[in-house]
TrEMBL record:
Lineage: superkingdom: Bacteria
Organism, scientific name: Streptomyces roseirectus
Annotated protein name in UniProt: TetR/AcrR family transcriptional regulator
Keywords: DNA-binding, Transcription, Transcription regulation
Compositionally biased region (Pro residues): 1-19
DNA-binding region, residues: 49-68
Length: 209
């Protein structure tokens, strides 16, 4: 048999994608899901259908569930990421302000402004005090630091406790949620009234609990 008579070898099958390529694709898909979830949960809250998140992210439901087996897994991941970013910014702002009272009032203003634009975040604070117990604990620690600074400066009425401030934050968060559609700016009035009540100018003792 001459070389011309020999059969042409079949082309080699394409090489499978390398693990590095697969990992890169998976990371891109995960990032797209989280970006879409950020927006969808902020707009519609935790009750939204995850199919909307898959649609906006451009991935299939199977891909979404491979990364986040349940909607709660996805929601907690998004909320914890947002909380970490918010708390870091809150710390930076508070430490950059010399006036302790301005640091405390700025914290409430920033917290409620953030919640007013994110339905899922405000839901988590009104029901659990934060996305997770650890987030709630870290928030409590930060509020206690702000309270201590204000007390030391004589700007906060001395009988106000950290629990009082936590309850106030939850109450104002609920106001953000319930008035967001009908009166979106009303929480600012309630915040101002509340802050006036916290001032050390008010000397009448608070009721015992």
């Amino acid at each position: 048999m001459t070389p011309a008579d020999q059969p042409t070898p079949a082309p080699a099958p394409p090489a499978p994608p390398t693990p590095r390529v697969r990992r890169a694709d998976a990371e891109r898909n995960r990032a797209a899901i989280l970006d879409a979830a950020d927006a969808v949960f902020a707009e519609h809250g935790g009750a939204v259908d995850v199919r909307e998140i898959a649609r906006r992210s451009g991935v299939g439901m199977g891909t979404l569930y491979r990364h986040f087996p349940t909607k709660d897994d996805l929601l907690l991941t998004v909320l914890e990421k947002q909380f970490a970013a918010w708390l870091a910014e809150a710390h930076e702002r508070a430490t950059g302000v010399e006036d302790p009272w301005q640091a405390l009032t700025g914290f409430f203003e920033q917290m409620l402004t953030t919640q007013a634009g994110n339905r899922a975040v405000v839901e988590s604070y009104t029901t659990h005090g934060g996305p997770t117990p650890d987030c709630a604990r870290r928030c409590r620690t930060f509020i206690d630091e702000l309270r201590t600074r204000c007390l030391a400066a004589g700007r906060l009425r001395p009988d106000v406790t950290t629990d009082d401030l936590l309850l106030l934050s939850g109450t104002l968060s609920q106001a953000v949620l319930t008035t967001g559609d009908s009166h979106p700016g009303q929480w600012r009035r309630l915040l101002r009234i509340s802050l006036d009540g916290l001032s050390s100018r008010n000397t009448e003792p608070l009721p015992e609990v």
